């Protein structure tokens, strides 16, 4: 049986190239921003579209609230499994999982689309299904505006194929 000291050692300990998760994600965000600016995306648009992890500002009756985004873009709150999107004068809140097989969706800023890394389903920023194995749009949460914040109702998720009316109204127009 390994000693306590051996159990805490890692093959990466002391490696000059090891990096913690937070620094890796920060670096990835900055690299994405730099690439977007290099190919000619205006800086304000690039900043708004660069996926950066976000956390809810506070909880209201158990539901997270987020500041209304200042510009079009995507914010991902992995803790609450919420994707907050501002797009063309509207705000949406989506479940982080692909509706096909529950894999976490990724934002592709270059194409301005969400994509499932497992089966490559694609979605527009408003959650509308584009292509792939999925058969419906991204699952939307009911949201309300409270001053300068968006409150996401985690108990009210709408599936486009089962609750088309709820799905269509799960939006805040700015």
Question: Quick summary of this structure?
Answer:
This protein has four helices and 13 strands. It is α+β, with helices and mostly antiparallel strands.
Describe it for me?
By secondary structure, the chain is an alpha+beta fold. The protein is 21% helix and 33% strand. It has helices at 4-8, 21-38, 43-49, 164-169, and strands at 52-53, 58-60, 63-67, 73-77, 82-87, 90-95, 106-108, 113-115, 122-123, 129-131, 140-146, 149-158, 172-173. The strands form three sheets. A five-stranded mixed beta sheet has the order 1-4-5-6-13. Strands 2-3-12-11 form a four-stranded antiparallel beta sheet. The N and C termini lie far apart (62 Å). Mean pLDDT is 81; it is low at 1-7.
What are the defining features of this structure?
single chain; 174 residues; alpha+beta; Rieske Iron-sulfur Protein; 5-stranded mixed β-sheet; 4-stranded antiparallel β-sheet; 13 strands; disordered N terminus
Bin the strand percentage: 25-35%
CATH uppermost class: Mainly Beta
Low-confidence stretches: 1-7
Shape: globular
Structural class estimated from helices and strands:
alpha+beta
Order of helices and strands: HHHEEEEEEEEEEEEHE
Any idea what the radius of gyration is? 19 Å
Overall helicity: 10-25%
Main β-sheet description: 5 strands, mixed
Q: Count the beta strands.
A: 13
Could you tell me the CATH topology label: Rieske Iron-sulfur Protein
